[in-house]
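seq/struct pair 1
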Amino acid sequence: MNPELNNELLGYRRPDGKVGVRNHVLILPTITCATQAAKQITELVQGTVSFIHQHGCAQVGEDYDQTFRTYVGMGLNPNVYGVVVLGLGCETHQARSVAGEIAKSGKPVEVVSIQDHGGTLMTIAEGARVAAKMVQDASAQRREPFDFSELIIGTECGGSDACSGLSANPAVGVVSDLVVDAGGTAILAETTELIGAEHLLAKRAVNEKVAKRVYEVIEKMESRAILMGVDIRTGNPSPGNIEGGLSSLEEKSLGASNKSGSRPLQELIDYAEYPTKKGLVWMDTPGHDIEQLTGMVAGGAQVVLFTSGRGTPTGSPIAPVIKISTNTAMFEKMRDNMDLNAGTIIEGEETIQAAGRRIFDEIKEVSSGKLTKSEVLKQHDFGIWRIGPTF
């Protein structure tokens, strides 16, 4: 452990020992029918966050399990002080089941049901009452020092351009190495956008089991596309990427994989799973920005680094998202949304290492309380990767 990195962050210690960089009270709707009531509660009670979604009922099998795991993971994220789980009452994903799993962490958890509480208005009133008490209790908690060994960062690549693999992505790779070297965890995601670069990651696997899993996950993602009659390896799925100057998905992948830095790949986990090892971890997610962001946050990421060559407003209701532009022209055009500019690398004003260190320093500031632009603008995006049909 580098002693220079110790105690440089300030966060909120949770009952299970984890540390959050935010202190949210989450209003968690387990069914789409409850999302509007959840939104009303957040408008009434300062210090609460929530999200809109279309899930929670008529799901079966692995698809049910993955959605359930995502709900629970959002509540368990260290950035959450306490949770009001809001259900309808008759849905597949029962609010009490979700609350029961979150409560095992020792966090304050309450359940409010629209059917049990006599309809929408009574539910909003009860939810707001419970949430207000949680927020007041949360406000009494003070930040305390912690170091990078307790931090999980998510890494994400949005719409790319010809600069992505040369500037922002390798700069994030430097950050990934710095966090790993400090004893922390860096999550690499976007399986779709690693197709064509899998052999490079397999070479860095800590053992043959992890290397084998790399190829299995890539093959499974390709098979999903083939079942739809699409050869995803030879085409680029995003018009924005093509307009940005990329010729193929493999070109996108070779640039996106740079976010992983150079350290060994410790494990490959499923969507919305919590890492079991420190170091570089790959989470199996789609390339869809919001779905992968949600998966990493549900997997415990307290901070997310999001590179973009096209510009994006994307944010999370729970985790601060630091957005990094790959070129200066886009950064100047979208200053409302982009936090940092790595276009300085392209212009020869900064090395990749220096830009990476600058991003690393920004993580320190954000982890200790500085708001990202997506937080200021209340960009609370949420979407679950569905792997099965609705019945």
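seq/struct pair 2
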Amino acid sequence: MVRRHTVTPLLVGTLILRANSGASTIVLGLLLAHMAASTAHKITSVQVGLLPVAFYISELTLAPFMGGLSDRWGRRIFLVLGPVFGLLQAGLLFFTPAHQPLPYLLSLQVLAGLSGAITVPAVLGYLADLTVRDQSRRVRVMSLYELVTSGGIAVGTVMGGLLWFWFGRGAFVWLAVSYILVIWCMWLSPVANQAVSSERKIGETARRYLRILRMPRLLAFLPAWLCISALVGIWLSSQLTFILSTPVRYPHQLLMGSMSGPGGGRMLSLVLGGIVLFFSLSLLFWAFFLQKIARLRLMFTSIIGVYLACIALFGINHRGASDTTMIYVWLPLLLIGVFAETSFAPAALAYLADISEEAARDRGMVMGLYSIFLGLGQILGNGLGGMFAHRFGFDGLIYLTALLALVALFSLFWLFKKGEGYSDDKSIYASE
């Protein structure tokens, strides 16, 4: 009897991996705050901000090469090796020195970026390999991947504070141990059929990558993917938390500092936790009920959702403090917008996997673009979000979101217009 391929071990491993990532971020922030309060050495927010920069630079630089190596050597070795580096990074965080910790932590962030660069392209390439003959299953699997990613980060964010409360610095030991479970899950993942690329020199690999980047369908799609990834950096980062809890108020902007003061932190956790839960349930819906809808149609739907959410947030932000009736209009509109927005990520991942069919031997390199543009988007969204928020307050995040959605919309229209010229059986290997 042939063993049925299942993605369950890999998805469970990804869930634990993302939970570790979310918890590690929280525990590290609490550790730095504790060190800043208990030592003479000053730790500034600028220094703390350098840590994700080091992580993303490391991941963005190495992900394409690791994706290419997974095409050459097979996925399984990378599925297992990535969490090993994560285990090493989490364990070494326990030994963070009290004096001048920044150089030590920056080096560990580079190690964490290496772990992500090894793992993510291999995971996405594996999922694309596993669903190569079942397109409807591909959308479902990619949606589940997004679900365990967002759900894992949400669980880790909650667990991070509890681990610090219970174990203090020892929380890093527990996180390191949990990576053993990730390694075990990745090892249990069944072998998927893969068109492994031939041995190539570095120069030839670089030329192959340039040819992949010049694929018309990919070039037309990348601006949309970058802009939507930037929205993740705007709304799922510390920027939103800071704006909602800051004591600074803006005239006629109700949401600025709306959750500051006594009890504000608890209210903030409840609100953001509810949004993450609704976001995850929406992904689950797209995964199981709408897998037969065209990829581009789903992505257009997500852009409409972005603008509905912008309208709702602007209405909530500018309603009078005594006006309680309009909230019953704006809140449902916001939920509808968020629900529609969530269709982009699974559709985009499935579309990227579709594109990889044109370069089947380099599928890991193509799927490695996920990490690259997600990281670039995070940097773009956080950087521009800070500037827009500084100038316009909460409205600045809405303005920037609308602007990025417009760029994404033009990209999708261009892709739709040129779609007739993109043959499904077209391959960059056709001339070889």
